[in-house]
Structure formats: C-alpha cells, structure tokens
Amino acid sequence: MILVAGSANLDFVVRAPHIPAPGETVLGHDFQTVPGGKGANQAVACARAGGADTHMLLALGHDAYAVPLESSLKAAGVHLHARRVIDRATGTAFICVSDDAENAITVAPGANYALSPADLPPLNGFTHLLMQLEIPLACVLAYAKAARAQGITVVLNAAPACALPAELLALLDVLIVNEGELAVVADAAGSIAQCLARIAVPCVVVTLGHHGCCVRSEGSLSYQPAFDVTPIDTTGAGDTFCGVLVAALSQGQPLQTAMQRGSAAAALACTRLGAQTSIPNQAEVLSFLSAQPPATDARLTELKQFCGLESI
Ligand code: RIB
C-alpha cells in the first residue's frame, strides 16, 4: 500500500504555437482547466495506471478549485487524507503547451505550502512513501524520517529541482530525477555518469525524455529505451512514470519491469492532453507493452552512449 504525500494543483492550460520568450505575448488556441499537481498526478498514476492501493496526504483550500481535484483523485480510487486550509487558495499551475508538445509551468503553491510535519497520518500498513518537492522541504524531511523509522520504502521525485540536504538523501531508498534535476541534486555539471556517482542513494532513476531512462541500483546499471509515440502534451508524463514505477515496486515486480511499465504509461500519457486526464488505466498500459517489440541493441547502445555510463 502506497502513501503519496504531495501537492494538488488545478492546472490552467493554454495551447499555443510556441512557448513565449520573456517579454513576448503569444496568441494561444484553446484553454482548459485540468486536475494536476505532481503529488496528485503521481497518486492517480499509482492507482489508475499501476493498480496499487493508494492513499494521498494533501492540503486543499476552501474553494471551487479544490472540487475537481478531489473528484479526480477519488475517481481514480485514491483514499484521501486531506487537510483543509482556510487562509490559502488551493494550489494552481499555469501551463503553456506548445504545438510541438513542450510545456512551461509556473506553480502558485497556495494550500500545498500549509502542510506541516504534524499532518502525517498513521503509517501502519504502508509499504511505500512517495513524495515530490511541491510541499515544504521540512515536511518531506519529517515524513521521510517517520517512514524510515517504520521500515517503509521512501521514494522521492526531486521535482521541481532543488538542492537536497544530506540528511534527506540519507533517508531515501529511491530517488527519481530528470536530467536537469540530477545536475542540481548532484551539484555538478558533468555527464549523467559523473552526476550519478555523486549521489549516495541506493537506487537512483534518471528519466531522459524520448531517450528513455536509466537506473543505478546497488552499483549496477539498467536501461530502458523510451517507447515510440507521437507526443501531443508531455505534461504529467514524468509523474505517470513515477507513480507506475512505485506501484510496480510495491507489487513486488523487479526493477526492470517497473521501469518498463513506467515508461509505457508515460509514453501513453504523452499522446493525450493534460495531466491527470492523460494518465492511462492499467489494462491500457499492459496491452500497449505487450504490443511493443523488444528494444533493439542499437537503441540500447544509443541510450548507454547518451548516458555516458559504459565506463561505470
Ligand atoms: O508535473 C506536471 C505538474 O506540475 C502539473 O500538473 C502542475 O500542476 C505542476 O505541479
């Protein structure tokens, strides 16, 4: 059973020909609001795409923005431990999605930043704690400490990127980062190999967009090339990967299977609009996976070379 402790945001999404440069105004196309927030997206991914029994600790304002967020989580089967905050608005995110599927996101954390270390529910029965960095770092640290003390596997997706105290890194079992976050956490500008070597967490997963992902676990390396799809909107794809990876690990699947399932779910999420609206269900993930040819040696070699990890 998984506890996700993290953010929930209502995403205000506009599609546009391109993401505006500083000072530029761009005429966009359609606008919509979509349930989002890295924490809530990952909770929905754990439950809907990963088929895991999932709970979520979150904070919401007393406002209309909270309504679709609660509905989306409940519809995915996530059990809520929701703190209601009277003096802050529900978290929001302002997202521009370009016609070539890139995005730029600005988050107004609102109620998410009212979570406190005291809000953690009893941890009996949980096997995995999954967190991100859209809630106060003090909460992430306190929750990790409490989970570690009870033998729960602690997983952190270090997004948005932030330098992490050594005390927190020492409490993690699994760290999930993208290339930019890896450089910030490692505090280095070298290759992926060099950055990975600087992080003292037993299992570090690095997502690499259309290249795929790689994992360093207990000194050995695994790779998963990305599945080929035509992306429409990559918002929430990383969250989908994290949720499905942790769901698979919580179900006792090997790391390589967890990477495959996470990658398949993320690929499907890229073909649909929005964050939680794009997360597939588990049957779709497994059916997509079973239709994929095995990764070719050429794709694996390309991924290894991109990582620069052959020499580790
Ligand atoms: O990772 C995507 C998410 O980042 C969006 O849903 C947005 O709310 C921000 O948290």
Helix-strand topology string: EEEHEHEEEEHEHEHHEEEHHHH
CATH topology: UDP-N-acetylmuramoyl-L-alanine:D-glutamate ligase
* Biggest pleated-sheet summary: 9 strands, mixed
Strand arrangement, largest sheet? 5-4-1-8-9-10-11-12-13
CATH homology superfamily name: Ribokinase
In summary, what is this structure?
The protein has helices spanning 38-49, 66-75, 137-149, 166-169, 179-186, 192-197, 237-250, 255-270, 282-290, 297-307, and strands at residues 2-5, 9-16, 31-36, 54-61, 79-85, 91-98, 103-108, 128-131, 153-157, 174-178, 203-207, 212-217, 220-225.
What would you say this structure looks like, in words?
With about 300 residues, this protein is of the alpha/beta class. The chain has a single domain, classed as Ribokinase (UDP-N-acetylmuramoyl-L-alanine:D-glutamate ligase, 3-Layer(aba) Sandwich), CATH 3.40.1190.20. It has ten helices and 13 strands. It has a nine-stranded mixed beta sheet with strand order 5-4-1-8-9-10-11-12-13, with helices on both faces. Strands 3-2-6-7 form a four-stranded mixed beta sheet. The longest helix has 16 residues. The chain is globular. The protein binds alpha-D-ribofuranose. Alpha-D-ribofuranose binds next to strand 2, helix 1, strand 7 and helix 7.
Descriptors:
4-stranded mixed β-sheet, 9-stranded mixed β-sheet, binds alpha-D-ribofuranose, alpha/beta, 312 residues, globular
